[in-house]
Amino acid sequence: MKITLRQLEVFAAIASHGQVTRAAQAVAMTQAAASMALADLEAQLGVMLFDRVGRQLRLNDSGRELLPRAREVLDRVQDIEQLVGSTSPAFDLHLGASVTIGNHLMPALIARIKAEYPQGRVHVSRYNSEQVLAHLAAFRLDLGFVEGFADNGEVQRFPWRQDRLVAFAAPGHPLVGQVCALPDLARAEWVLREAGSGTREVFEQACLERGFSPRVALELEQPEAIRQCVKAGLGLGCLSELELEDAFRAGSLVPLQTPDLVMLRHLDVVINRHKFISHGISAVLHACGIDAAELRAGID
Question: What is the residue range of 110's domain?
Answer without folding.
Answer: 92-160+267-299
